[in-house]
Write a structure and sequence with these properties.
It is built from five helices and eight strands. By secondary structure, the chain is an alpha+beta fold. Strands 1, 2, 3, 4, 5, 6, 7 and 8 form an eight-stranded antiparallel beta sheet that branches. The longest helix is centred in the first third of the chain and has 18 residues. The N terminus and C terminus are likely disordered.
Length: 211
Protein backbone atom coordinates (compact mmCIF):
# COMPACT_ATOMS: atom_id res chain seq x y z
CA UNK A 1 0.00 0.00 0.00
CA UNK A 2 2.77 2.35 0.96
CA UNK A 3 4.66 1.65 -2.27
CA UNK A 4 1.54 2.43 -4.33
CA UNK A 5 1.09 5.71 -2.47
CA UNK A 6 4.74 6.57 -3.04
CA UNK A 7 4.46 5.75 -6.74
CA UNK A 8 1.32 7.88 -7.05
CA UNK A 9 3.04 10.75 -5.28
CA UNK A 10 6.04 10.48 -7.61
CA UNK A 11 3.81 10.43 -10.69
CA UNK A 12 1.93 13.46 -9.40
CA UNK A 13 5.26 15.22 -8.80
CA UNK A 14 6.42 14.53 -12.36
CA UNK A 15 3.10 15.69 -13.80
CA UNK A 16 3.26 18.83 -11.70
CA UNK A 17 6.80 19.55 -12.89
CA UNK A 18 5.85 19.11 -16.53
CA UNK A 19 2.56 20.97 -16.28
CA UNK A 20 3.96 23.72 -14.09
CA UNK A 21 2.71 27.27 -14.29
CA UNK A 22 4.42 30.15 -16.05
CA UNK A 23 7.81 28.65 -15.21
CA UNK A 24 7.50 25.10 -16.55
CA UNK A 25 4.84 24.87 -19.24
CA UNK A 26 4.86 27.58 -21.91
CA UNK A 27 1.37 26.88 -23.24
CA UNK A 28 0.10 30.11 -21.66
CA UNK A 29 2.49 32.29 -23.69
CA UNK A 30 1.99 30.64 -27.08
CA UNK A 31 0.37 33.07 -29.53
CA UNK A 32 -2.26 30.49 -30.45
CA UNK A 33 -4.14 32.66 -32.94
CA UNK A 34 -1.00 32.90 -35.09
CA UNK A 35 0.13 29.28 -34.97
CA UNK A 36 0.15 27.99 -38.55
CA UNK A 37 1.52 25.17 -40.65
CA UNK A 38 2.77 24.29 -44.13
CA UNK A 39 1.64 21.23 -46.09
CA UNK A 40 -1.18 20.28 -43.75
CA UNK A 41 -4.14 18.22 -44.90
CA UNK A 42 -6.33 20.85 -43.17
CA UNK A 43 -4.57 24.21 -42.51
CA UNK A 44 -6.45 24.84 -39.24
CA UNK A 45 -5.03 21.65 -37.76
CA UNK A 46 -1.83 23.45 -36.75
CA UNK A 47 -3.67 25.15 -33.88
CA UNK A 48 -5.27 21.89 -32.76
CA UNK A 49 -1.99 20.27 -31.75
CA UNK A 50 -0.77 23.05 -29.45
CA UNK A 51 -2.85 21.89 -26.50
CA UNK A 52 -2.95 22.41 -22.76
CA UNK A 53 -1.17 19.86 -20.58
CA UNK A 54 -4.49 18.27 -19.59
CA UNK A 55 -5.18 17.51 -23.26
CA UNK A 56 -1.73 16.14 -24.09
CA UNK A 57 -2.87 12.53 -24.55
CA UNK A 58 -5.99 13.42 -26.56
CA UNK A 59 -6.01 11.73 -29.98
CA UNK A 60 -9.23 13.23 -31.39
CA UNK A 61 -7.38 16.33 -32.60
CA UNK A 62 -4.25 16.04 -34.72
CA UNK A 63 -2.41 17.41 -37.75
CA UNK A 64 -1.73 15.32 -40.84
CA UNK A 65 0.68 16.22 -43.62
CA UNK A 66 -0.74 16.86 -47.07
CA UNK A 67 0.97 15.79 -50.31
CA UNK A 68 3.95 14.09 -48.62
CA UNK A 69 5.42 13.47 -45.17
CA UNK A 70 6.91 16.96 -44.65
CA UNK A 71 5.24 19.40 -42.25
CA UNK A 72 6.32 22.74 -40.82
CA UNK A 73 4.56 24.04 -37.70
CA UNK A 74 5.29 27.69 -36.88
CA UNK A 75 4.74 28.59 -33.20
CA UNK A 76 5.09 32.25 -32.13
CA UNK A 77 5.13 33.36 -28.49
CA UNK A 78 3.55 36.45 -26.94
CA UNK A 79 6.82 37.26 -25.16
CA UNK A 80 10.44 36.11 -25.21
CA UNK A 81 11.01 32.72 -23.63
CA UNK A 82 13.81 30.32 -22.75
CA UNK A 83 12.86 26.90 -24.07
CA UNK A 84 14.36 23.99 -22.15
CA UNK A 85 12.59 21.04 -23.75
CA UNK A 86 10.10 20.06 -26.42
CA UNK A 87 7.14 17.76 -25.69
CA UNK A 88 5.75 15.66 -28.54
CA UNK A 89 3.08 13.06 -29.11
CA UNK A 90 3.37 11.72 -32.64
CA UNK A 91 1.46 9.36 -34.87
CA UNK A 92 2.25 5.67 -34.63
CA UNK A 93 3.29 3.19 -37.26
CA UNK A 94 3.90 4.53 -40.74
CA UNK A 95 2.78 8.06 -39.81
CA UNK A 96 5.59 8.62 -37.28
CA UNK A 97 8.01 11.34 -38.45
CA UNK A 98 11.59 10.39 -37.58
CA UNK A 99 13.38 13.68 -38.20
CA UNK A 100 12.82 17.14 -36.72
CA UNK A 101 14.63 20.35 -37.57
CA UNK A 102 14.00 23.29 -35.24
CA UNK A 103 14.48 26.89 -36.38
CA UNK A 104 14.56 29.63 -33.74
CA UNK A 105 13.30 33.15 -34.49
CA UNK A 106 12.82 32.53 -38.21
CA UNK A 107 9.30 33.84 -39.00
CA UNK A 108 10.46 34.41 -42.59
CA UNK A 109 10.41 30.68 -43.35
CA UNK A 110 7.44 30.62 -45.69
CA UNK A 111 8.09 27.45 -47.69
CA UNK A 112 10.13 24.27 -47.69
CA UNK A 113 12.87 25.68 -49.91
CA UNK A 114 13.50 28.34 -47.25
CA UNK A 115 13.72 25.64 -44.60
CA UNK A 116 16.09 23.48 -46.65
CA UNK A 117 18.42 26.44 -47.27
CA UNK A 118 18.40 27.65 -43.65
CA UNK A 119 20.58 26.05 -41.00
CA UNK A 120 18.44 24.86 -38.08
CA UNK A 121 19.35 25.42 -34.44
CA UNK A 122 18.79 21.72 -33.90
CA UNK A 123 18.43 18.65 -36.13
CA UNK A 124 17.35 15.58 -34.17
CA UNK A 125 16.20 12.01 -34.71
CA UNK A 126 12.78 11.35 -33.19
CA UNK A 127 11.92 8.18 -31.32
CA UNK A 128 9.73 5.58 -32.98
CA UNK A 129 7.06 3.53 -31.21
CA UNK A 130 6.33 6.01 -28.42
CA UNK A 131 2.76 5.87 -27.09
CA UNK A 132 2.73 8.72 -24.58
CA UNK A 133 4.14 12.24 -24.70
CA UNK A 134 7.92 12.20 -25.11
CA UNK A 135 10.19 14.97 -23.82
CA UNK A 136 13.20 16.07 -25.88
CA UNK A 137 15.68 18.26 -23.93
CA UNK A 138 17.09 21.23 -25.85
CA UNK A 139 20.40 23.07 -25.60
CA UNK A 140 19.43 26.02 -23.44
CA UNK A 141 22.14 28.24 -24.92
CA UNK A 142 20.62 27.86 -28.39
CA UNK A 143 17.07 28.55 -27.20
CA UNK A 144 17.63 31.22 -24.55
CA UNK A 145 15.83 34.19 -26.12
CA UNK A 146 13.06 32.87 -28.33
CA UNK A 147 10.07 34.65 -29.86
CA UNK A 148 9.11 31.92 -32.34
CA UNK A 149 9.96 28.34 -33.24
CA UNK A 150 9.47 26.61 -36.59
CA UNK A 151 9.30 22.81 -36.37
CA UNK A 152 10.10 20.92 -39.59
CA UNK A 153 8.94 17.29 -39.33
CA UNK A 154 9.92 14.84 -42.06
CA UNK A 155 11.06 11.31 -42.97
CA UNK A 156 8.07 9.38 -41.67
CA UNK A 157 8.30 5.62 -41.26
CA UNK A 158 5.99 5.01 -44.22
CA UNK A 159 7.39 7.87 -46.28
CA UNK A 160 3.98 9.23 -47.26
CA UNK A 161 2.31 10.95 -44.29
CA UNK A 162 3.27 12.42 -40.91
CA UNK A 163 0.82 12.78 -38.04
CA UNK A 164 1.26 14.97 -34.94
CA UNK A 165 -1.06 14.86 -31.93
CA UNK A 166 0.59 17.23 -29.49
CA UNK A 167 3.31 19.87 -29.36
CA UNK A 168 4.30 21.50 -26.07
CA UNK A 169 7.22 23.38 -24.55
CA UNK A 170 8.91 23.61 -21.15
CA UNK A 171 10.91 26.63 -20.05
CA UNK A 172 10.38 30.07 -18.63
CA UNK A 173 9.68 33.59 -19.80
CA UNK A 174 12.64 35.96 -20.11
CA UNK A 175 10.76 39.24 -20.52
CA UNK A 176 7.83 40.58 -18.48
CA UNK A 177 4.44 40.84 -20.11
CA UNK A 178 3.76 44.41 -21.07
CA UNK A 179 0.92 46.09 -19.15
CA UNK A 180 -0.74 48.47 -21.56
CA UNK A 181 -3.50 49.40 -19.14
CA UNK A 182 -1.36 51.58 -16.87
CA UNK A 183 -0.85 55.11 -18.11
CA UNK A 184 0.49 58.28 -16.55
CA UNK A 185 -1.96 61.17 -16.71
CA UNK A 186 -0.16 64.30 -17.88
CA UNK A 187 -1.37 67.89 -18.40
CA UNK A 188 -2.30 68.26 -22.06
CA UNK A 189 -0.23 71.41 -22.50
CA UNK A 190 2.97 69.76 -21.33
CA UNK A 191 2.51 66.22 -22.57
CA UNK A 192 4.03 66.77 -26.00
CA UNK A 193 7.34 68.38 -25.10
CA UNK A 194 8.14 67.95 -21.40
CA UNK A 195 10.99 65.52 -20.59
CA UNK A 196 9.79 62.31 -18.95
CA UNK A 197 11.64 63.03 -15.68
CA UNK A 198 9.99 66.47 -15.47
CA UNK A 199 6.58 64.94 -16.12
CA UNK A 200 7.04 62.43 -13.31
CA UNK A 201 8.26 65.19 -10.99
CA UNK A 202 5.16 67.26 -11.82
CA UNK A 203 2.92 64.33 -11.00
CA UNK A 204 4.72 63.64 -7.70
CA UNK A 205 4.61 67.30 -6.66
CA UNK A 206 0.92 67.51 -7.52
CA UNK A 207 0.14 64.44 -5.40
CA UNK A 208 2.02 65.91 -2.42
CA UNK A 209 0.21 69.22 -2.82
CA UNK A 210 -3.19 67.53 -2.65
CA UNK A 211 -2.23 65.78 0.58
Amino acid sequence: MASEETRSANEASVSSELAGTDFANLYGVVDKDNVHGLNLDVPEQARHIVKSWDEREDTTKFADSGVDDQVIIHVPFTQNVRVRSLLLKLGRGESTPLRLRIYANHPSIIDFSDAESTRPQLDINLLDGQIQVTEYPLRVAAFANINSLSLFFSESVGGERSRIFYVGFKGETTSPRKDTTKKIDLPAANAADAPLVDKLNEKTASQHAVR
